[in-house]
Model the fold of this input.
Amino acid sequence: QVLPVESGGGLVQPGGSLRLSCVFSGSGPTILSMGWHRQAPGKQRDFLARIAPNSGSTLYADSVKGRFTISRDNAKKTVYLQMNNLKPEDTAVYFCNALLPSGYAWGQGTQVTVSS
Done:
């Protein structure tokens, strides 16, 4: 079983930066890709970015392209989300996930609040 565990959230001022981390604990099925989504209060969970563990190829939502960067460290079984130039509308719970042959495994989420 693969269990993603996020960390790195917190309170940051507009224009600031945060780096989220997600460690994939456990073992078992092959991880096909790793990604980040977020969910603001009262809104649906939105896709942000994905990365393939072997090739490192990435995919971003238009809303974060140029501000957010996804990366991975396969040796540490960790995926990162570097977030720059944060805006109040980036406030949300950020979720990490692993795409497995059987479907998605989700973490519990980490809160990011952008406010002055």
Notes: The mean pLDDT is 95. Residues 14 and 87 are 5 Å apart (CA to CA).
